[in-house]
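Hi everyone, sorry if this is the wrong subforum. Our group has a chain we'd like a structural model of before ordering constructs, and none of us has done structure prediction before. Sequence below.
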Amino acid sequence: MALLATAALLVAPPLAALGPADAAELPLKRVVLSSAGLAQFIHAGTVTGGATVELPVRLDQVDDLLKSLTVFDRAGGIGAVSLPGKTPLVELFRDLPFGPEALASPSALLNALVGTEVEIAGPVNATGRVFRVEPEETTLPNGGGTVTRHRLALMTERGLVTAVLEDLTTLRFTDLETRVQIERALAGQSQNRAKDRRTLSIGFLGDGDRPVGLGYVVAAPVWKTSYRLVLPKEGGRARLQGWAVVENLTGGDWKDVELVLISGNPVALKQQLYTAFYTDRIEVPVTTAARVLPRTDDGDAAESRPGPRAKAAGTALARREMMPAPQTGQVQRLMAPAMPAPAAAPPPAEADAIAGAAQAAEAEEAATQLLYRFPAKVTVATGHTVMVPFVDREVTASRTWLYQPEVSARRPLAALRLRNDGDASLPAGIVTAFDGGADGAANFVGDAQLPLLPRGTFKYVTFALDAKTDIRREDQGVRRTTLGKAVDGTLTLTTRSRRTVGYEITPPADEDREIVIEEARADGWSPAEGSRGVEETPTRLRLAVKAPKGQTTKASLVLERTDRQTVVLTDYAPEEILARIRGLENETPAVKETVLRLGALVGEINRARAERSRLDAERKRIGEDQERLRRNLQSVGASSDLGRRYVDTLKSQEDRLAEISRTEQTLDAEMASKRQAAVDAARQLKL
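Answer:
Right subforum, don't worry. Here is the predicted structure as tokens:
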């Protein structure tokens, strides 16, 4: 675990002014919540050298705590950092002569400790070793039913003595070790009563009182953003007020803590550091001395031989134990960032104006995240939710209408073009929009979503559908022109595609509209050369159109795309060569002549191919008929009249097969010649 503070966020607040902390724990002083679902907690106070600080933590957060715990000490050292195991009761009862089920009842405990010496008092007084406790049914008088009692049997010097366990006034284990074991088990049960919590103990070395702190990062609910936006009546300034929704689900109260909110996307990892893992080791045989058998003096040359080696009893597993934190003599310095001064109070509000935030957060933008520090301390009870303002200012804004055909095919959306001209980015969040009415009151007009708005950039936020404006959209399709360039059989094709989308905009009869048409941007497409008023974003194309009241305005968005492809015509079949060069926009008379030649060659090849297919089919039919004739010939014999007819037919078929083979060779040569002629024509093509 980390023991040094190295980052700006891993620092404790100023401790010089803090009062002494409770001897058992350090109070919570700072909470840093991240939009990535993490929270950093800083505890700080004063401890005495040699003291141990206890930190209760939820069981599901122990892994994160072991990963991120950082201790701050001005002038002392860190001692042991320890906590109970993940399953402390399992480890406790592993070393006891009985299991946790033995604590279910006195009879269960006695049966688990059979043979242990006890001393009993009551109707029966005796000292002896536990033999057994057995249940027995006792009938109550006057039909009162039955009751289960337990009879204890002891082996004493006088013999076997029995007594009803429920009637005894005293039962004492005479063995001190047994009493200690039972006490350990009961204490362990008491300490483990909170199943989902663990207590971390941190020892502080050194002399005297001094301020210390500790921090850790664990999983926490994501803080949410909620904005209020008052639309501008005239001009270009809108009122923006941002609130953060924060939840305390830690199981402990936050009392007068410093609150910091972080908007970012840091890498967040987790690991099971609180789970014991074992690794296999290679087992080697135990080395023992060889047994020696002295040789008898009888002239025998045979040598003594060693006996078999002993085998290992089982496989041992290496267990990783949590080691206490090393002591350090280095003085740990506490870095304390200056707290922002309280924000100035806003001017008096009108009766129906939205109230300003008394103490909005101070924003600080880092390389990868945005921090909001609140000047006033907050108090949040466990399980409660609190809203705190983190921004309250005016932003540059202009009202417009945004047409998104995938949202509404005929209606634009009332929108606001927001520019972040502040000193820090604005995190994404939901926006509730208000408009000032004739009486000065703020009236709800709709909800919107504000994406992450970096400083110096603008975004559109849409909050309502404009039912007064009608837009007709017509996709007029794509027109393509293909130009070719051919040199030595290599053809380069340039295809220019042009897509036109037309719009007819009919605004209200008494209001002008400035419509921003928004279309999805497809890969490779861009505004046509000469297009004006088209704004390009990584994913959208926007066209601004002014539509005067009382008339229909037409507009169009023209997009272009250019694709290039290079092919080696001599690698293709004649019909593919013909398909490549046919229909080019820059076709010359020479190209037309080549197209005619290739068309004729392709026609001749297709005819030869069809004749080749017909001959293949005929050969197949002859082969099937010959198979039938040979079977019949075996049945009737070659010397019979029918057999001689079969033989004559087979001879004529063999002659036809030979003729087919010769014709196929001629066709193959003809097709090869035509293909070569097509390749030569493609190589000679100049374009």
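For your construct planning: The radius of gyration is 47 Å. The chain has a mean pLDDT of 82.
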